[in-house]
């Protein structure tokens, strides 16, 4: 079963401007910007009350955003934590939720599976990322525990593998 929100993925056009907003205007803690030139991905993580906002700047075609009807800045995905990814995938599929092919992926101490963002489907266009943490990294716990103004250090683990290019699952007969 889903136990909590793991993080919210926010697609941003300008990560420096987004960090300035969330850190300087809103007052949330940010551990810095992480660049991944091999994929064109740039990430920053801000946190409030144990919920992480994952700021993502990348070419649309290099992200799962390419499957969404709206491909501009805003909410990209809702990541839900589970202790048993395989069981949660099976439970959701039995309820009619489609999963993207080419998953699950395992990297940076977690396994992930994305749903198909079907605008007329059960989740009403919201792409869900199911996350099973295989290990709780000390930096992960430290960043999630920090509040605004806490300078105690820590960097959120990265998904540092190549961007997924797998096609979406298809409905039978589609």
Give the helices and strands, then pairings.
Elements: E1 2-11, H1 15-25, E2 29-36, E3 41-48, E4 51-57, E5 74-82, H2 85-94, E6 105-107, E7 110-114, E8 128-133, H3 138-145
Parallel strand pairs: 1-4, 5-8
Antiparallel strand pairs: 1-5, 2-3, 3-4, 6-7, 7-8
Could you walk me through the main structural features you see in this protein, from its secondary elements to its overall organization?
The protein has 174 residues and is an alpha+beta fold. It has a single domain (2-145), classed as 2,3-Dihydroxybiphenyl 1,2-Dioxygenase, domain 1. Helix content is 17%, strand content 32%. An 8-stranded mixed β-sheet has the order 2-3-4-1-5-8-7-6, sandwiched between helices. Strand 6 (105-107) and strand 7 form a beta hairpin. The longest helix has 11 residues, at 15-25. It is globular, with a radius of gyration of 16 Å.
**N→C terminal distance:** 30 Å
Structural class: alpha+beta
What is the CATH C-level name? Alpha Beta
Strands of the largest sheet, in order across it? 2-3-4-1-5-8-7-6
Oligomer: single chain
What is the CATH architecture annotation?
Roll
Indicate the proportion of strand residues: 25-35%
The helix tally amounts to 3
The CATH homologous superfamily corresponds to 2,3-Dihydroxybiphenyl 1,2-Dioxygenase, domain 1
> Uncertain runs with pLDDT below 50, 5 residues or more?
137-174
Instruction: Give a quick account of the main beta sheet: strands, pairing sense, barrel closure.
Output: 8 strands, mixed
The number of distinct β-strands equals 8
| CATH topology label | 2,3-Dihydroxybiphenyl 1,2-Dioxygenase, domain 1
Query: Which term fits the overall shape?
Result: globular
- Order of secondary-structure elements: EHEEEEHEEEH
Q: Give the tally of structural domains.
A: 1
Mean pLDDT: 76
Helix content: 10-25%
Radius of gyration from CA coordinates: 16 Å
């Amino acid at each position: 079963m889903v136990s909590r929100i793991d993080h919210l993925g926010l697609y941003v056009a300008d990560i420096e401007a987004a960090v300035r907003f969330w850190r300087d205007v809103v007052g949330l803690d940010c551990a810095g910007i992480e660049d991944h030139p091999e994929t064109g991905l740039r990430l920053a993580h801000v946190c409030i009350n144990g919920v992480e906002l994952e700021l993502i700047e990348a070419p649309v075609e290099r992200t799962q955003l390419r499957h969404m009807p709206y491909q501009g800045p805003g909410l990209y995905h809702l990541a839900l934590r589970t202790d048993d990814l395989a069981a949660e995938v099976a439970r959701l599929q039995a309820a009619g939720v489609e999963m993207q092919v080419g998953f699950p992926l395992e990297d940076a101490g977690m396994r992930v599976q994305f749903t198909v963002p079907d605008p007329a489907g059960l989740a009403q266009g919201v792409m869900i990322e199911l996350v099973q943490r295989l290990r709780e990294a000390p930096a992960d716990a430290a960043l999630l525990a920090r509040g605004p103004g806490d300078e105690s250090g820590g960097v959120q683990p990265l998904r540092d593998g190549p961007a997924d290019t797998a096609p979406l699952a298809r409905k039978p007969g589609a």
